[in-house]
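Hi Q.,

Before the meeting this afternoon, I wanted you to have the pyridoxal-5'-phosphate prediction in hand. No need to reply - just skim if you have a minute. The sequence and ligand are here:
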Amino acid sequence: MTTRDHCLALDAADALAPLREQFALPAGTIYLDGNSLGVLPKVTPARLQQVVADEWGRDLITSWNKAGWITLPQRVGDKIARLVGAGPGELVVTDSTSANLFKVLSAALAIQHAEAPRRTRIVSERGNFPTDLYIAESLARQHGAELVLVDDAHALAACLDERCAVLMLTQVDYRSGRLHDMAALTRAAHDAGALTVWDLAHSAGALPVDLQGADADFAVGCGYKYLNGGPGAPAFVWVHPRHVERFWQPLAGWIGHAAPFDFTPGYRPAPGIARYLVGTPPILSLAALECGVDTVLAAEPFGGMAALRAKSLALTRLFIELVEARCAGHGLELVTPRDEALRGSQVSWRRAEGGYAIVQALIARGVVGDFRVPDVMRFGFTPLYTRFVDVWDAVEQLRQVLESGQWRRPEFNQRSTVT
Ligand SMILES: Cc1ncc(COP(=O)(O)O)c(C=O)c1O
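Predicted structure with the ligand bound:
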């Protein structure tokens, strides 16, 4: 049976342990919510201060050229590309994941409409993140398409037929943490004549992603989760080079124009992925995101995403083992797949009663996870800064919360807006 000393020994032997030093982790907090909002990198405040005071305050508008503001979406995009198996110049940072999804799904539908007009279905999962489903629903209305949702991932294959235009999936499910095989599903979609749109919100920076290797068509993802870009950090968008210039994306804005400073009245899309930009880039947010992405790239000398993945799986394996051993008999049901090939970087538990309150009681004890309706307690394990001993200590707090019944206190049962 694993002991706390054993966990300390694992940390002592962990080659990735020094990466934790990059983060301003609050004392006394075990943070298991990097899948929702990544931790502040230590360098971010000074970098933002520099952008504000020097680049904005002193150099003012000259910074668009002098400080490279105008190409920041591409510069940060090229860094994220290294984490998700995309080439340089193929990915930009812009807007939100939702807005980018709108752009790529529109493009995918437009391609299919031109080439295979009888393909009118967008196939996805009912449990997909709601914004993905809302965007798809909205586009389905505009394009006269149909949104087909399956309840079980095993049913996806049967939906890949001559009616399917686009298979739109989130690679790691936000609730259960289940990981899809991107390469296999993309192959199946292509064999059926469909295109793929992948949401990498819970995979970019969490596990190795190989967009080119999987031959995916379109992808979007978040900057504020495992990329540590800060609250509301801009998102990213990638389009396979074979598709990128085939269509305008529908939000034709001046920053996505081939020559924005010609100020011509007619739209001419920029070559390549730059046409997926829309309006003026949010420089402060981009600067913060760059700091966050750099914390992940800092793992490259230690084995990069493959090494982070190995540690992430070791952490989630340990968490499952310890919860099952030390919190047995408290009605916790594992939602996340036991099969590690099907697991992202989080572990979720279901409990018939009190899930929200248990998470609140844990937060009061300095162990931060979150809750997703109706009954899911989520714990994210960011291998950059989570230690094995944190897993032990978090499980010990969970055991105490469950055994004491402390979660039943009224203050832990009052729902806040953000859960
Ligand atoms: C899978 C997934 N997609 C999209 C989003 C939301 O993206 P945004 O707020 O950038 O539009 C989230 C947020 O948690 C998510 O989990």
